[in-house]
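User: Fold this, then the next.

Assistant: Folding the first:
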Amino acid sequence: MKWNSLVVLNLENNNFTSKIPASIGSLTLLKSLHQYNNKFSRNLPSSLKNCEKLVIIDVAKNKFEGSIPSWIGHRCSSLIVLNLQSNNFYGHIPKKLCALTLLRILDLSHNKFSGSIPTCVKNFSVMHGH
């Protein structure tokens, strides 16, 4: 199997721990990343910015921490769903997310964000935030 031709990676509802390996960035055709409900920790790997075809990033219910990487708004312009719910993300919501003009679902609930919400959220058709 040629892993670099992978389009969907679904690892939901397992007990994976540690960090996402940097090698995920070699999956340049990846469109859908589902890692919901695991125990992944640390930051989202910066190599994920190489996966520019991503339409869905769902990493909810893990133990990710740090701020939302600014490259998400810059390099993942095809994103429709960004689900970061129930992690340990903190800091402000980057204005770079405003560049995600196709984004329809943004779930940032149950984290530790602070500051103001960028005014561009009015452009998203659906936004979840508790």
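Now the next one, as you asked:
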Amino acid sequence: MKAVMTPHTNAVYGKPKGWDDSKGMKCTELPVCVAQGIIFSWWKPTFKERIKLAFGVKIRLAIVGGVHPPVAVDATNK
């Protein structure tokens, strides 16, 4: 999936300091909306991913770091 800009985007996060893409996970810029202590990002699945989702493939969320923050995943155009 690709993170996408929306009319709500008010910040873009870059790679964390010291991040090394060669160690297995590429880190790209993340457009976000920061509002009331919550960080929102929007993701658009590729055509291939949309086909997989239509056939019931699960969505996986990866959190990098030692602590798993509270998260929510949904489908919305808002």
